[in-house]
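[09:14] KT: can someone run the structure on this one? pasting the chain below
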Amino acid sequence: MVQVKGVAALSLVAGMVLGAGAASAQQHPRLSPARDVTVVYSVQPEKMPKPVQAIVQFKAEGDKLRIDAPDHAGSTILDRPAQRVTLIMNKQRVYTSFSPKHGLRNPFMLDMTMQYAPDGTGSVAGMTCDKWTITSPHGKATACVTQDGVILSEEGVDADGLHGKLEAQSVTYGPLADTLFQPPADYQQITAQMPIPHGAGPQSSAKP
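[09:31] RB: done, structure tokens below
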């Protein structure tokens, strides 16, 4: 699900379902949070020996989200209306922005390219959620999603055929400033030095 190495740890833009898929009549969970919310996740990629932590901030209706590592090394910002990914590196005080060739994908949001089947209810991080079985051409996953659209847990095969799991550790509702979803004004913009592989997130060693 996620490749975690240096700032690339923030590129949890590795696959599990995002996009502006066409509407469907099938039963499904709410596809994005209804309110501004911050979620601390434990993320376990298939080949990682132990989970890593990610702090994810969602703007209401899921148009934008920000992913931070707990060490504040950097951030990944996804802008769905603009179809842009921005990778911020705090130590270097630089950022790079690009439009993924195959569209935005990440493990923290759902879309209508997947098939959903209800599977009862559950509880994660002290919150009630609806359990779903999710089917894609690559296989299956399970998720537990609150009625207002926050993914509390997810495990299985993602939209790119990668395996992994995530689980919310805490959920905090509250307004999020628009500036959180923009690179700092005093950071220098750079250009990636190598192509971004589909589904792998920014793997560049870009330099100014």
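[09:33] KT: thanks! Residues 1-24, 194-208 have pLDDT under 50 and may be disordered.
[09:34] RB: yep, looked fine to me
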